[in-house]
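User: Assemble these into one structure.

Assistant: Restating your components, then the assembled model:
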Amino acid sequence: MVLITLFLEFAKAGLFAAGGGLAIIPFLIEMSERHGWFAEAEIMNMIALAESAPGPLGANMATFVGYGVAGFPGAVVAVIALIFPALILVTIIAKFITQFSNSPYVKDAFYGLRPVVCAMITAACWGLIRSTIFTLDLFSETRNLLDLVHIPSLILFGVLLFLYIKFKKHPVFYLAGAAIVGIVFKF
Amino acid sequence: MKILLDLYITFAKVGGLTFGGGYAMLPIMQKEVSEKKGWATEVEVADYFALAQSIPGLFSVNSAIFIGYKQKGVLGSVVSALGIVSPSIFIVTILAIFMNRFLYNPIVYHAFAGIRVAVCVLIFGAIINLWKKNMKGIVAYTLFAIAFCVSLFTSISVVFIVIAAIFTGIILMQIKKRGVIK
């Protein structure tokens, strides 16, 4: 039953992905490796779509994956699974809110969790960035240094990063700009 | 009953009107929940957001659950959580249908090739912010290096890495409190 598998995978992500929207990416990569529901390269399309649509990023990505795996029922199951652990956990915490926010163990756990989550997200994103901008497969075939990176992508990356840090506009602007550049220069 | 419907609609509005997730949702949630409904003060909503970060899951959903619980107990939290994710389910499904249909159209294909580069920039920017917020001190860098290598070079499940990180944090702080490391 693919719906049950879908539920379990997203409940797992909901329970263990600490650190907001991007924290779900390592879990998505694990899903693509384990179940082959989508290729790793598709994760980039998912993030783009999730950033362009309103709503929590994690819920958007879950909808996208769920829909791809089992249509609309899949989308509903994935999103409900994603918020299910939080529903139980947060409701319990809401009851004992003062004890929770004053608990030294919660703070101590985050002392270890913060840098580790940071590392997990960095590793996952490095994989995605590498497969988008670097063409390591092509390089290992031709051994030509120029084939190591996709140069137009690298230039676009540099320009967008500069604009992003300088102007801090909404992500949709950069996504739209990059789409136009992609069409005009036939990326 | 009326309050439940009200919670659902209010959070569906927050979910359907905010782009970018996470902290981008805070101002709109403050406006809808504090200003319009008076369910919690603006400071309380901000506190919920901060607290939501020390719980797994999505910040905005966790905050909605807190506010819903405060209004109407467990039912309130369920309704609020469903409200905030409902627009995502419908909007993203529609987008996904279109994307699957048009992805092999050459124009859409090139557009997405460009978009993927922009996504790299967005996640790179997000990582820089994460580093700035979370990476302080030699212990953090050491843990980062270990976790980075484990995630890149082994196939150990992310679940185990997270659990290991929680225990490492608690054990390290116990040692620290006893004054072994500074």
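Chain B touches chain A through 96 residues (CB under 8 Å).
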